[in-house]
Amino acid sequence: MREFTRLLLYAAAFIWLMITGYPFVFMVQTSLKGQMDFFTQSIWALPVPCRVANYDEVLRTGFLRYFGNSAFVTVISVTLILLVASLASYVLSRLPFRFNRFILVAFMAGMMIPVHIMLIPVYVLTRRMGLYGSLLGLVGPYVAFNLPVAIFILTGFMKELPRELEDAAYIDGCSPAGTFWRVVLPLSSPALSTIAVYNFIILWNEFIFALVLLNDPKKWTLTMGLWNYQGQYGMNIPLIMAALSMSTLPLILFYILSQEKVVKGMVAGALKG
How far is CA 196 from CA 71, 116, 200, 201, in A? Predict the structure, then answer.
């Protein structure tokens, strides 16, 4: 009976893999077709012959510049989110003070603010700070609007860490800052990995702030560059699919490298919740 149940689980997992994985296969398959092949053949037909010219054309149209801009903004933003969220969560979860709960609730309230109603204030503030049209102008909104979720996850995780470890560190002569860097932060690596992957995916695919705050095509991020591939009267679908295939590759690689700690963080959160 146990073997039959396991077989059913594997079958269900395989079916789910086919459902969720086929869109990516379809995207890569379409990227290897020519424009005429796409319109004259069935959309399900295999690319025969395979045409890699679409990838070469994408690389010659500024894709690497868009890719570099997105990587620059995303890496800086995710790093700042992890740093600020870990510091704030440590204070809110391990160092009780008078307005502790009020500050935590204020951070949580930020999760309920729709991004779109803040576009005009963010635009005005960015222009007044002289950051409009620059990549650094995206970092502030990216960090601010993603901090509440990160603090929410990390605060809950740090509250469940054994206080005996901190007490032992204090006895050994560690200050609160030393305890944070040497004890609490390493133990929080599963939650930090989960937050890093979550924010990396969101910021890599972010479009609305890039559309509002960037006016120079040389500073466009990857989503803006992909949007620019469509024309006024038509679009080259295989070319767009090639660009999408290349743009999703970093997300897949990043998740593959981090999936073990992400799963550990999710399981730890489930057990402690």
Answer: 14, 23, 6, 9
Is 122 within 8 Å of 212 (Cβ atoms)? yes
Four-CA torsion 167, 173, 179, 182, nearest 10 degrees: -120
Beta carbons within 8 Å of 35's beta carbon, 6+ residues apart: 236, 237, 238, 239
d(CA 175, CA 171): 10
For residue range 202-243, what is the model confidence (pLDDT) as tens digits? Answer: 999 999 999 999 988 889 999 888 887 776 556 788 888 888
**Domains, the chain, ranges and CATH?**
63-228+249-272 (1.10.3720.10)
Could you count the other beta carbons within 10 Å of the beta carbon of residue 44? 8
Q: Are the CB atoms for 110 and 216 separated by under 8 Å?
A: no
pLDDT band at 268 (very low <50, low <70, confident <90, very high): low
Strand, coil or helix: what is 237? helix
What value does the mean pLDDT take over residues 23-50? 84
Alpha helices in 53-135 (DSSP H): 53-59, 63-94, 100-109, 119-128
pTM for the structure as a whole: 0.83
How far from each other are the two terminal CA atoms of the chain, in whole angstroms?
A: 31
